[in-house]
Amino acid sequence: MEEDLLNNWEKKSKEHQKLYKNWLSRADKNKVLKVLPDLHEEAFEKIDCLQCANCCKNYSPRFKTPDIKRISKHVNMKESVFIDTYLSLDSDGDYVAKSSPCPFLGENNFCTIYDKRPSDCHRFPYTDEDVLLKRPVITLKNSSFCPAVYFVLEKLIKL
Q: Is the pTM value of this prediction over 0.90?
């Protein structure tokens, strides 16, 4: 049964969006935060991001000022040139990657700036922190393309 959880996960996630939304709106925060670290760990024992990379292929993190400073220095570019080359402003006024997949997604789904990656990338998919509950719209979106978020939500709704 456990192995079946990830089979066809994209389809199941799509079918469960309303269930997740309802669950997230009434979840017991303390109970959830207590089990998240273990569920997060369990998810990543079963899921290899390098086999997926949906996040890097289809979405962009926010590039905050510290990220831009750190990455532009790492790639040996002036911040303004880095921004002009790789980033654009989204509707929320945040810097995001101009293109998909991420310009730093390398061969075999490796990140070419992994040690310097944006904080959003470092924290993604937020399955070990309260963002999962605090930002349900993001959680729902993430569950549609990230098997780890799907896995954690499926485990949580059964608690």
A: yes
